[in-house]
Specification:
single chain; alpha/beta; Phosphorylase Kinase, domain 1; Transferase(Phosphotransferase), domain 1; 4 domains; 24-stranded parallel sheet; five-stranded antiparallel sheet; 37 strands; about 45% strand; globular
Length: about 625
């Protein structure tokens, strides 16, 4: 069928009054996606509604908002449409009603206009989960609510009002461990959404699902608080696990002011003691008395550790999905995060410190769990001996990561004999700031990513990259550093590294390993040498390297567009140089059997050895 282009429809997902959702494969990439087929009549308002749903999603990128890849408009014959439905073998009443409506629209011309919306493929809806009679699982319940709050916050920050927030329009992800009820959950179905300006706008009344509609939505002047009202009801439904049979009666009583019907405060989990209060405030009849912005909910629906002893207790008793907030104080101790899927947020003001211990192996924060998020935290690795003045201060370790799949963002580490140590795998570190340390960051695990890190005043080594298949981008070394990067692993990427130093220092020392790539390296300052490729390296690539001195040993390296003052090629073979420039190049310890290939290179003062090799 021509209108499907490169799509192959593989299975049926669900149908509604206006749309049919199917699973499809993009043939060219073998990627599975969801496709929504939506008919529209000639009414311009209906057409604009469909386009609005697509356009309100296409440029949005948030883990808790359904991603739309694109949409297109097609004229489709009923024969083609019948063929799709027959292949899907969809026999439910919703599909039958959808087909009947399409046939009615196409009754004269036997064609109708369909929008084909391409979306990311998700799992079951939140309504499906609630109807499945789930067992109480406070961790999952809290995680659902937190993720929905995050998605709604993102939309409201963009001045988008959803207007139909309900469990049917929330979708789970598909995960190997959790099947169709995986995370993150995603807010979808933006057909009724609007962009607004200010606190309230003139909007069409009675838009949404009546059970979840705020009172003011029955009029035509309202704003983001209609979503907060709906979110309050959904939060209550999820935390209290209200059955489908009880929901209409419960909702009616709460709207009539019977707040005793909300019993989530009886759930034995320390971090939702405020849940009842929050639900009641979000579902107030009058918008003026209701929670005004979703940020108010997010800030209160969390755990707050106000001192060191509380932080120890909270970390020990945390559970998957918990969000732990720190305040603007110093937390002294050796803190350990053992559990999975925890968020630890310092708000940019909290400081972790080792206190008075004189143990240099002491680590301010150790992450043993997986899929945790640690962000907006400062770590001070300096601590004084209990028996001495501050001048006897010694340095401990800052952050140690053993787990995998963790995200570390906006963390500043001051001091440290080793500021950050990554021994786990597949962790993501962004916006790290390392100051006045002996060794900045050590990466011993594999498949980690490090991006946008700054190093200031490093006395020994800025980054030790010892693992394999790690990706490191956008590093900046400021002020004095002895050695910027020591590279020992294999299959690593080192890209966009900049050094500015006022004293003589060394850039990248690649001591051993294979298949590493160094790209876009720039050294500005007093340089002993920029890049040193040792004899135990092979099959590496250097691209767009700019420094004073480049040393090349090892074998089978490829250098492209490198601009240096001095290039020294030592023992090794099968080196290839393309479009490289150097004022001086020397070649030593190269046998007649070794191969050096120069393509499009410019050398100002080649040594006699190079002349000999070129004439050989």
């Amino acid at each position: 069928m021509e209108f499907l282009d490169d799509l192959k429809i593989t299975s049926y997902i669900k149908a509604g009054y206006f749309g049919l959702v199917v699973k499809a494969e993009i043939v060219s990439s073998s990627q599975d996606i969801a496709c929504k087929l939506v008919y529209h009549v000639d009414e311009e308002s209906r057409k604009q509604t469909i386009k609005r749903e697509c356009e309100n999603l296409m440029d949005k990128d948030h883990p808790n908002v359904l991603k739309t890849h694109g949409y297109s408009e097609h004229s489709v014959t009923m024969t083609d449409l019948a063929g799709i439905l027959d292949n899907l073998k969809a026999t439910d009443i919703e599909t039958h009603m959808w087909k009947t409506k399409c046939e009615y629209i196409a009754r004269n011309s036997q064609t109708l206009t369909l929008f084909l919306i391409r979306m990311e493929l998700c799992g079951a809806s939140l309504r499906d989960w609630l109807k499945s009679n789930p067992s109480p699982n406070s961790s999952k319940q809290i995680k659902i609510v937190n993720e929905l709050a995050s998605g709604l916050q993102y939309l409201h920050n963009l001045d988008i009002v959803h207007r139909d927030f309900k469990p049917e329009n929330v979708l789970f992800s598909i995960e190997a461990d959790n099947g169709v009820y995986g995370h993150p959950v995603k807010i979808g179905d933006f057909g009724l959404s609007r962009e607004i300006t200010g606190d309230e706008s003139t909007l069409t009344s009675r838009k949404g699902t009546i059970d979840y509609m705020a009172p003011e939505a029955f009029r035509n002047l309202y704003g983001k608080q209609v979503d907060i009202f709906s979110f309050g009801l959904v939060t209550w439904e999820v935390l209290q696990l209200i059955s489908p049979e009880d929901r209409p009666g419960h909702f009616k009583k709460l709207k009539e002011g019977e707040t005793n019907i909300v019993t989530v405060d009886l759930i034995p989990r320390f971090n939702i003691r405020r849940a009842k209060e929050l639900i009641i405030h979000m579902t107030k009849e009058l918008a003026a008395e209701r929670t005004k912005i979703i940020d108010d909910f997010i800030q209160r629906f969390t755990i707050v550790a106000r001192n060191s002893s509380e932080l120890v207790d909270v970390l020990a008793n945390s559970d998957s999905g918990d969000i732990i907030h720190l305040v603007g104080t110093r937390y002294d101790g050796n803190f350990v995060l053992d559990n999975n899927d925890i968020v630890l947020d310092g708000g940019g003001v909290a400081v972790l410190s080792p206190g008075l211990s004189n143990n240099t192996d002491w680590c301010s924060l150790t992450i043993n769990g997986n899929k945790c998020i640690v962000r907006n935290i400062k770590i001070n690795c300096w601590h004084a001996k209990a028996e001495g003045p501050i001048t006897n201060a010694i340095k401990s370790q800052g952050l140690l990561v053993h787990g995998k799949g963790n995200r570390i963002d906006q963390v500043t580490v001051l001091g440290g004999n080793k500021s950050v140590i990554i021994r786990g795998h597949a962790n993501c570190l962004t916006h790290l700031h390392i100051k006045e340390a002996d060794t900045g960051i050590m990466v011993e695990g594999n498949e980690n990513s490090l991006a946008e890190a700054t190093f200031i005043g490093i006395t020994k080594t800025g980054l030790e990259l010892n693992g394999c298949s790690n990706k490191v981008r956008d590093l900046e070394f400021l002020n004095d550093v002895d050695l910027a990067v020591e590279l020992n692993g294999s299959g690593n990427l080192l890209e966009n590294v900049r050094i500015s130093s006022s004293k003589k220092c060394r850039g990248i020392s690649h001591r051993r390993g294979a298949n590493n790539a160094i790209a876009n390296f720039k050294f500005k300052g007093d340089e002993e040498w920029g890049v040193d490729m040792a004899r135990d390296t092979q099959l590496c690539s250097l691209t767009n390297v700019k420094c004073k001195v480049l040393r090349v040993s090892g074998s089978n390296h490829v250098l492209t567009s490198c601009t240096v003052e001095e290039m020294h090629v030592r023992e090794g073979n099968n080196q290839k140089f393309t479009n490289c420039r150097a004022n001086l190049i020397t070649v030593s310890s190269i046998s007649a059997d070794d191969k050096l290939e120069f393509i499009g290179c410019t050398f100002g003062k080649p040594s006699q050895s190079v002349v000999w090799m070129q004439n050989a």
